[in-house]
Design goal:
Number of helices: 11
Bound molecules: SN-glycerol-3-phosphate
Largest sheet: 8 strands, parallel, barrel
CATH superfamily: Aldolase class I
Shape: globular
Helix content: 40-55%
Distance between the termini: 40 Å
CATH class: Alpha Beta
Strand order of the largest sheet: 1-2-3-4-5-6-7-8
Number of domains: 1
Structural class: alpha/beta
Mean pLDDT: 97
Length: 220
């Protein structure tokens, strides 16, 4: 399962690159607004900080503007993936962009029907919003299983990227569902990679035992 970073934080991207576990980066208008920096500069930094794709979301809600923004963004780099919220206007935008060879990610997915529509329109990725699905009282795992089952049944090439994850349990359940990837924000990434307390204790014990007999460990 691929790990994407849902961030504009370059330091976090560097950290993930060093660990060797980053497949790409996703952003959204809230993250750009929070960073309070020009979107083009952010995209440029994210493209330079890692070798994978960067998914960037259109702000427009009207179909023509969404397509126009998507085209303009894609002209910055062919490593960009255009994120389109899966409204009815979004379906048409995905269709038009994909016909021009511009890769798209259908985002803000709450229901399998939206994922099916996105795939039919030509989306490369669908991003179901795990914790937000939970918050509206629905079962995100049923949603994921349903999407996986539909895509698998019809051999659809659209990939599933779990988004809006809040906990390690969310991340692991996504992995158990066998989806293509997840996108994680900074706090969750830090929790994901932190050393386990029991592992640290085991290491400490090994070190104490080993230090008693240093000569046994000399490399000749
Ligand atoms: O990139 C968008 C998605 O990950 C939203 O996450 O945490 O704002 O629900 P969140």
């Amino acid at each position: 399962m691929d790990i994407w970073l849902d961030t504009t934080d370059i330091q976090l991207v560097h950290k993930a690159v060093k660990l060797g576990i980053v497949a790409g980066v996703t952003t959204n208008p809230s993250l750009i607004a929070k960073a309070n920096r020009n979107q083009e500069e952010i995209v440029d930094d994210l493209l330079h900080a890692q070798e994978g794709p960067v998914a960037i979301q259109v702000l427009a809600t009207d179909m023509e503007e969404m397509v126009q923004q998507g085209q303009m963004l894609y002209s910055l780099s062919n490593r960009l993936i255009i994120k389109i919220p899966l409204t009815q206007e979004g379906i048409e935008s995905i269709h038009l962009l994909s016909r021009q060879g511009i890769p798209t990610m259908a985002t803000a997915i709450f229901h399998p029907r939206q994922a099916l529509l996105a795939a039919l329109a030509g989306a490369n990725y669908v991003a179901p919003y795990i914790s937000r699905i939970e918050k509206i009282g629905e079962n995100p795992w049923k949603v994921l299983q349903s999407i996986s089952h539909i895509f698998h049944s019809y051999r659809m090439k659209t990939k599933i990227l779990g988004a809006s994850l809040q906990t390690i349990d969310h991340l692991l359940q996504c992995a158990e569902c066998g989806i293509s990837g997840v996108t994680v924000h900074k706090e969750l990434f830090d929790k994901f990679v932190e050393s386990e307390e029991h592992t640290l204790q085991a290491v400490q014990q090994f070190s104490l035992e080993g230090e008693k007999y240093p000569f046994l460990f000399a490399v000749k």
